Amino acid sequence: MTNEYKNDAKIFKALCDEKRLQILKLLKNGEKCACILIEEMNMGQSALSYHMKILCESNIVKARQDGKWTHYSINAEGSKYASKRLMEITDSKKGNSSCCK
To answer: How many CB atoms lie within 10 A of CB 36?
Structure first.
């Protein structure tokens, strides 16, 4: 498996969970402290940490440490790359099939 597909797998893993999609929606309006996400998501710190690790590894979310709290935001470059890869993977070229003619 090439690195490209390994990165794709991280991106799509990040997007295949309801909780992570909810977190992304919360981050859509700007940076949020982990304490706010814990409250908004009604989940414990360890559960949030698990989801944020996956989101950060996908490069869709970035983290900034401020004292004991971590602040999270959407990584515009990572989000743009994820969108681009989805289009590249799913874009069908008409007339490209040579099967069953």
So the answer is: 14
pLDDT in tens, 21-53: 999 999 999 999 999 999 999 999 999 999 999
pLDDT, position 94: 57
β-pair partners for 69: 66
d(CA 27, CA 31): 6
Average pLDDT over residues 9-20: 96
Beta-carbon contacts of residue 13 (< 8 Å; ≥ 6 apart): 54, 58
Q: What is the pTM of this model?
A: 0.85
Report the alpha-carbon distance of residue 20 to residue 91 in Å, rounded.
25
- Say if residue 63 is exposed, middle or buried (CB neighbours under 10 Å; 0-12, 13-18, 19+): middle
